[in-house]
Design brief:
Chain lengths: 317, 250
Amino acid sequence: MDKKTISGSFVALAVAMAVALFLKDGYSANLMAWMAIAALIASGLRFVTLIGELNFAAAAFVGLGAYAAGYSLTILEWPFLVSLLFAGLFSALIGVGFGYVTLKTKGPYFLLIGFAFTEVIRLIYTRINVLGGNSGMIGIFPPDFLMDHFTVFTVGLTGLLIIIMYAIEKSYLGKCFIGIRDNDQVVLSVGINVHMTKVLCLSIGAFVSGIAGGLTAYVNNVISPADFSFLLSTFALAYLKVGGEDHPLGPIAGAILLVFLGSIALRFGGGDHIFYGIAIILTLLVMPKGIFGLWESFKSSRKHVDVVQQSAKGGQA
Amino acid sequence: MKSDQRVALVRTEGIGRRYGGLQAVSNFSFEIYPEEILGLIGPNGAGKSTTFNLISGFVKPTSGRLFFGDKDVTGWSATRISRLGLIRTFQHASYMKTLTVRDNIAVGALGVTGFWRTRAIQNKVQESAHMLGLEQYLDEIAGNLPHGIQRLISIAVAYAANPKVLCLDEPLTGLNQTEAVETLNLLRRIREHQKCAILLVEHNMKAVMQLCERIVVLHHGQMLAMGTPSEIRSNPAVISAYLGEKHARS
């Protein structure tokens, strides 16, 4: 990761936090926090696509994080930051076990296992009384000193995690992830433990999803099993596809756009899901590589025009 | 025989692999000695690829034993065997298509260097790219390059992993005569520079006869003959396997 990208992303993050600081009314602030969390979940989903897998268990890890944060704060009465960290670590730990067992499969098989895992975990919450069963947990509040500016904190933390994920992607570990996606046999043949590397990638994704879940719990103050069904993974996939999965800013753009559209749709009385459906269909038809795919092809076509013009000039001279 | 006094780097003892009712390789014993170039040839379906998979740990043997030096590595995983220095390539596309050539070679080095020793990785990339003459392609995406270059990338990735035994699965397929000759010279240079043994599976007989010091012939999953190129060329059993009985007698 070069210095320009690092400084650029931190400036952008500071601007986003400043915007969050000036949001006065509660709904806008919450909306921005939801956008940030959605961007984090979608970025976590994108991170696991580096090894070529679509992690439909992302919703389960978000849920595990949310319940870990809720349980450790309201019942164990742990301090806020410890409970948030616990949310991430607990998800990551489950992610290690889940990945170790399931990452022997690939592609559609892995996707379906993730889907089933999400639903099983969701049903488990409904059967545990201490977690509130079907009605979930309430009273998950951030500490007093953060109460007024929790959106700023949320935006800052999600941004930081997204930057860290990007830094990992650009490191040699990230190259190794992509190598596994392209050709896992070759990576295996040069003495790299492909299976454990994939488990590591999934666990990092699970950690990030867990933090996103913890933040969800603190922003909404209330969590219930229904919040963490497979639909959450589907939405995350929608953010990723609409924004463009080849670019790290893609899931952020997709999340901001679709969460915003969803909030408008709510005014028409529910049925916001139809907006996601339309957005996905339109994206796949008009810009199959998402918003950032369109941007990249626009940039490269301009570059191409420049090259053609220059060579034409060269021909005349 | 002279070669028997040297200490083998890789040795199989009656190794075999059965797939259901099909005995792909049976009771196959051979050795790879340090710094030799050994050819493994045989008609299609003779068990060459299975042998490759067996010694590199990609397939577990159903009988026999595999030794690396004096270590019994039978049943070891591919990762552990390749960490000992037995590095293989694949017949098709032994590279990562969306990564640049630089990152391809870097991934090859990661098993030796680990993920975080940036300087060591970069040095290895430079060394490997220099060895294979890929310097001008370092920042190109591997999938966009011509077939001949992609073949070189495959070898560069394997070279970056510090092989003690480099196993190449048909590295000359699809190359024209000039490229094939260049690749042969390259393999000699790699052997001298890296001081590694090379095991070569190849259908291009001319190349195999030119390059290899010893040749092992497989037929129907069993060893048919072993010897120098000239011994193999005049071996009646080999001629009969390749060309039929009539040619063997004449």
